[in-house]
Each structure stands twice: as C-alpha cells, then as structure tokens.
Design brief:
The protein has about 190 residues and is mainly alpha-helical. The chain is about 65% helix and about 5% strand.
Length: about 190
C-alpha cells in the first residue's frame, strides 16, 4: 500500500512539474511571438498577452500544489530547528491542516466562481464539449475557463497537504521524522 502511495505521489509530482514546464515554455513563446509581431511586423495578435497571462496564472496555481507537497512553502524553519522534534512536528501538522483548509476553501469558492462567472474573452477561440465530442468555437471563450484552475488547484493543495500529514505522521512513528527545511520528499527513506 505504501509503495503504491509513493508511486502515485512521484507520478503526480512529475506530471505536474512537466505541466508547469510546458506552461512556462508557452509563456515565453507567446511573449516572444507577440513582441516580434508587434515590433517587427507591426501586426500583434490580439490573443498574445491574454494567453501569456493565463499561462502564468495556471502555472502559479499548479506550482502551489507542488510547493505544499514538497513543504517548500513559507514556514518557520528557523524556529522549528530550535524546538524539540515533537513540538516542531505538532506545529508543522497544524500548518498542514490550515493549508488543507485553504484547499477546501479554494474548492468551494472556486466552484462557485466558475459556475457564476459571466463574460467572455472576445479575442479567444476555444473548444467546447457538445453532443459527445469537442466542437471548435471560433470566438468568445468564457472567462470561467480561465478561473477553473482555482478549484483544481484547491483539490491538488488539499491532497498534497493530506499526503504531507500522513507522511510526517508515519515518519514520526518510525522515528525518521525531520524538520521541513531538512526534508526532501524525493530522497526520503521508506518509513515502514
């Protein structure tokens, strides 16, 4: 069971990291293309800046989940190093629970925002699922597509926080628990 958990954890982390890399590459490509089209050919695309911003937003929200899972978020690492290991554990678990709650809030209000978001991006075409297949729509992408990352990221953040809580608890029980600043999830020994 623990082996399956670790396999899924690594696969999800690699997939999300690759997706972030693709989004970063797209941000650069959209920006370079827009700048060249604007200043060299004097014919910039109307969608260039928007796609750059949307790629950035999605990148940041997905990276948030990776940060939570790797425990790289802002923490009180200096204070943890001064505290007894069990006290530091309790404080870290508390913050992981708070982050889990943040993920739940992101899911709840993200779904509400996506379902009630009005308006469309006039400069964007998009694909929609209709009658069992994807259909090309030539214009007016709904703004809800752009913010749909909020509940997705909320789910990923919640799962990452739960995984950190579970992993830290197992490590404390096995006697291999380390402070977050000393911890690298990819190099961690098996707690069992």
């Amino acid at each position: 069971m623990l082996t399956a958990f670790k396999f899924i954890d690594r696969a999800v982390k690699k997939t999300l990291t690759a997706f972030c890399a693709v989004l970063l590459l797209l941000m650069v490509a959209f920006t370079v293309y827009t700048v060249v089209m604007r200043y060299v050919f004097e014919n910039p695309p109307v969608w260039g800046d928007l796609l750059t911003v949307l790629s950035n937003i999605w990148l940041v929200f997905i990276a948030l989940a990776l940060t939570v899972r790797d425990r790289d978020h802002i923490a009180l690492d200096l204070i943890y190093s001064w505290l007894p290991i069990r006290v530091a554990f309790v404080i870290q678990q508390f913050w992981s629970v708070v982050i889990f709650g943040l993920g739940i809030v992101m899911i709840i209000y993200g779904v509400e925002a996506v379902s009630t978001m009005g308006g469309k991006y006039w400069e964007m075409w998009y694909f929609a699922w209709e009658d069992g297949s994807f259909v090309y729509k030539p214009n007016y992408m709904p703004k809800s597509y752009a913010i749909s990352i909020v509940p997705i990221s909320g789910f990923l953040v919640s799962v990452a926080a739960l995984a950190s809580i579970l992993e830290d608890s197992l490590r404390l029980k096995a006697g291999t628990y380390e402070h977050a600043s000393d911890f690298d999830a990819s190099e961690a020994p098996d707690p069992s």
